[in-house]
Design a protein that fits this description.
alpha/beta; Metallo-beta-lactamase, Chain A; six-stranded mixed beta sheet; about 20% helix; hydrolase activity; metal ion binding; Metallo-B-lactamas; hydrolase; Metallo-beta-lactamase domain-containing protein
């Protein structure tokens, strides 16, 4: 989750050029979308936004349930947090839990799927992890015994060895080290084609309703998705392309901070690539009127928000809980 600047990659981007959006393929296909409560954790603003105060606030950890209306195929996008700390690696428990204080949701992501969709857990066949960090990805087969999980290209190379072969690794060896995990997981193979302003996108259901998009910057294998609703509106599930709405809106920059050992670090592994990805998301939003949902942002749930599209995807109980928490945070 935290990337040492010694590992940051320099990349040539189009950051100084205006993004060009290709026309989107014509389709009437669409998905039904639900935003699920994946829990929350505490973030320090000074490690998120450059120049921000040393102030903590609670952030959500959204997961998504997606159903293609035409075929009936369903998938889970990201998995949220577990109340069982043993589902996280020793690295995460020892290095991140103390500062971030993760809190699992009142009802697990699996429970929410069952209750909102009358779906048996063994009926869910597909999980897509936006990336391999602990707050999005963990062993899933206890809940979804028949599911196959998919990662973005380059994930396996980056995340091996996991903690079973290297106890100091942050990556989960139950997924990346042993045949039992690797047999349940794959990297997406495409085909990858241009889509709007994005260079590498995959038409996941084959009918234009849901596009999985390579989104460089946060870590190798990072993915976002574009979901088309019945209204024709597109929703970008933007994951960890940035961790604060003000960065996305151009009101702040990625923070660079100092780790206890003296090394400089950032939440984005490749800052130039991350900025390029944000520019492409903004180009898509501007060209097609898309809604953008970041994995750890709930500002669209603030009282008085006019974003009825995103709000409509959240259950009433989750909406009330987060609006209450946000109201408390605004007063502090």
């Amino acid at each position: 989750m935290v990337n040492s600047l010694s590992n940051l990659i320099s990349s040539d981007t189009e950051s100084g050029l205006e993004m060009q959006c290709l026309p989107l393929p014509h389709t009437s296909a669409h998905v039904d979308l639900q935003i699920l409560d994946g829990g929350s954790f505490t973030a320090n603003e000074s490690k998120v936004v450059e120049g921000a105060k040393d102030k903590e606030h609670c952030v959500p950890d959204w997961a998504f349930f997606v159903k293609d209306h035409e075929s009936g195929r369903q998938l889970l996008w990201d998995y949220g947090l577990s109340e069982d700390k043993e589902e996280f690696t020793p690295f995460v428990q020892q290095n991140l839990f103390g500062e971030l204080r993760p809190c699992s949701p009142p009802k697990s992501v699996a429970q929410q799927i069952v209750e909102r969709n009358a779906l048996a857990l063994d009926e869910l066949g597909t999980i897509i992890f936006s990336h391999a960090h602990w707050d999005h990805c963990r062993p899933f087969w206890k809940d979804f015994s028949r599911a196959t999980a998919f990662f973005g290209p380059g994930t396996f190379e980056h995340c091996q060895p996991g903690h079973l072969k290297d106890p100091s690794a942050q990556w989960d060896g139950r997924i990346f080290d042993v045949p039992a995990g690797l047999e349940k997981c794959q990297e997406l193979q495409g085909p990858w084609v241009p889509f709007g302003p994005f260079e590498h996108a995959m038409d996941f259901f084959g009918n234009g309703s849901f596009w999985v998009i390579q989104a460089p910057g946060h870590m190798p294998g990072n993915l976002i998705a574009a979901a088309r609703l019945s209204t024709g509106i597109w929703v970008i599930m933007a994951g960890d392309c940035c961790h604060a709405r003000q960065i996305y809106e151009g009101l702040g920059d990625f923070a660079v901070f100092t780790l206890p050992g003296g090394h400089k670090a950032c939440l984005q592994a490749d800052i130039p690539a991350a900025k390029d990805t944000l520019k492409r998301i903004k180009a898509f939003e501007g060209a097609y009127g898309a809604k953008v949902c970041l994995a750890h942002d709930a500002t669209w749930m603030l009282h008085g928000s006019t974003d009825e599209t995103l709000i409509s995807f959240v259950s009433e109980a989750v909406r009330e809980a987060f609006q209450s928490a946000l109201s408390i945070g605004e007063k502090q």
